[in-house]
Amino acid sequence: MTKTEAETRLKKLREAIEKYRYHYHVLNESLISDEALDSLKKELVDIEQQFPELITADSPSQRVAGSALPGFKKIRHTVPQWSFNDAFSEEDMRDFDARMHRMLADQYGKPVSPTYTAELKIDGLKIVFTYEQGKLKTAATRGDGAVGEDVTENVKTIEAVPLVLSQTVDVVAEGEAYMPKSQFEKLNVEQKRKGEELYMNPRNITAGTIRQLDPRVVAERKLSTFAYDISGGTMTVPPRQDEELALLRTLGFRVNPNFKRCKNMDEVIAYWHEWLKKKDKEDYLIDGVVVKVTEREYQDALGYTGKAPRWGIALKFPAEQVTTIVEDIALQVGRTGVITPVAHLRPVLVYGSMVSRATLHNEDEIERLGVRIGDTVILQKAGDVIPDIVKVLTEMRTGKEKVFHMPKVCPECSTELLKKAVGVKGDAESAAYYCTNTRCPAKDRRTLYHFTSKHAYDIEHLGPKNLDLLLDAGLIASRADIFTLKKGDLLELPRMGEKSVDNLLASIEKARTVTLERFIVGLSIPEVGEETARELAEEFRSIEALRVATRADLEAMNGVGPRVATSLTDYFASNHNVKVVDDLIQQVTIQNPQSKKGSQKCAGMTFVLTGTLPTLSRDEAKARILAEGGKVSGSVSKNTTYVVAGESAGSKYDEAQKLGVPILDEQGLIEMLA
Fold it and tell me: One of 110, 121, 443, 597 is an active-site residue; which one?
């Protein structure tokens, strides 16, 4: 065979193998037998071995790499990876529906009736696929939403993932990787045959498989995927969610066929009840239904909170329930001083994991449940994640059970506890006990755990175990002390070799530069979570401005009520907390958000970006617009203020002309923002 003949034959083989892959994995139909398909793949590999210079990155032969990876690189997502808020009942969904109608009516100045698209929530691992010119460039885990792990070589082994799309486009798509239940059962049969420990559930092994360093192991485990969203790229996204799913299928992705467009919330709830009965018959785990506003125009109008899209929600199925015994109730001191009772349970398997503890939240919850030490209780995982006691089986009592009483003093430092309101539960205000000792050792320890976590300073290699080592050795006593650690001190600690110490010090050095938002999160101010911290950072722009803000200043902000305002002013009125802030400022560099100067230039304006701009990337242009108070939408509508068009602008340009929407080039945008 000549090289020219090989090129022709390889082209035909690749096209045929991709066609059969698409029909089998996407359309769920077999055009030829597995044996015949294997024969085509073998011929492909044989020719490529004869002419290795003809091997391409998107060849079906490249689904399994030849050698193991040394590790996983970090990859920054071009599109923020949100996660949906959860709902657990029909009442939650009615509230969501009412909220959608109310917010859209406010946006449009009149009643608006959105429809919903209901999709099955696959219980697996989220993957973000990036294609350039129709070819798979990267596949990454969600990570923290901004940065994930590059698992491209592993994902390429999954036959359901197209290496080449049917169109030559740039696309960022999102989907779920999972292990079919039938494959999971086969794997455990093999584990049992070898006398090895059985795997707990398909979800856990999917996550573990995606993070295997040897892609050949991933290929052997035969994972699959469903795609469900186009979140970025240059192609025009259809105006409805159900049409977007159809487009994904056309591009070559495997899409779950069981989605439904619902006219109203009654139809959504009926769909949920239907799949609650049918879910176990499918060859994949389903843990709920994802409900999205169908119309993309309405999605753009509703926007996002700091953590999730406002236009979507995950309605979970009731959690698996088991019974166990409360062997003891202990107290845990949190970083803000709140005292949380924790039930110590007889270990029991719930939804694939062994559970031995469950939070009882506060004294009111103990009284509501009527739980005693020695009781038999029903346990479930709320949202299949958090262990939760839902009921006491009082008929199982023997008379030996003990009533639990909250103590008067902190279990760690013996300071008298203060009981105060923490929120509203139903019609009654819920209360918690607090340790008021600012130097309670348990509070300090948990504050440090939070400070180094990914939610705050994100210091790698400095989790609870290493922090305990440093605290017990007396090397640190405060957050600022972390930045004063020296190599010689650390080398004296157990399990701390030179490489471990170098890695830790490098992570600490990296954390010296911190955004104002993360700096605020790291202070552990009661009532101030990540989203509130972001809003405070954007409003005040420096820690100096925030620490002198009055209650009136704070309450004037959207999303900051009297409780949060009081917590902030109380925090900065404390001499101890002032010292904490001052000490940290001496050790770190705070990256303040850009000045508010000119930040209202684009207020009330909605932009759509299309095509390739001469000097600005899509993300850079978007960031500039957002910094000036504007919004960026993915589709053109009558509400669009400007379309910013570059080379190969495509259908969005045509739509703008049809609707009479003004069109800017890059220079026009820059002049507007200047």
Answer: 121
